[in-house]
Amino acid sequence: MDDHRAQVEEMLADYRRSREQLAAVQRELAAVSGQAASPDGTVSATVGAGGALVGLELSELAYRRHRPEQLAELIVRTVAAAAAGAAEDTYQTLSAVLPVATDPASLVAGTADLRPDEYAVGDGTETVDLGRQVGRRRVDDDEDNEQRESWLDSELIDRRVR
């Protein structure tokens, strides 16, 4: 009986250690952030855990040096650089607790146990979630999009007239 009790105690101690390690990793992942600045220093971005944008600063010069579309592109590139830094920190945090052969980037992406052909994108369709109904539609179906937009416009006009 004492042998079983000792085994159970050992298993419980292992469980507690694993749980504490998991909690520590979760705290580290929640604290991950990334920061980046544009090469000219006019844009700086900060992202939090998961790459979510949490801060964006534009200097006065940003509006003078860049046309709106250039500034928008610069913001996107700067945010992407900050997100890449945060992702690298995430991968390093996970690497410490994952088996050696596990790729943390594919684990985070949800593709760790999939072949590339199982998650490849680029067939010209997208998944559309319509409440409880999920379907696929062509992304490049411009005629359908124009019809949908004109229908929306006429629907809005009809509402205003009433």
From TrEMBL:
Any coiled-coil regions, as ranges: 1-35
Domain of life: Bacteria
Stretches that traverse the bilayer: none
Record's compositionally biased regions (Basic and acidic residues): 147-162
A Pfam family it matches: YbaB_DNA_bd
Protein name: YbaB/EbfC DNA-binding family protein
Native source species: Lentzea pudingi
Region (Disordered): 132-162
Gene3D superfamilies the record matches: Nucleoid-associated protein YbaB-like domain
Keyword Coiled coil attributed: yes
UniProt keyword Coiled coil present: yes
Keywords carried by this UniProt record: Coiled coil
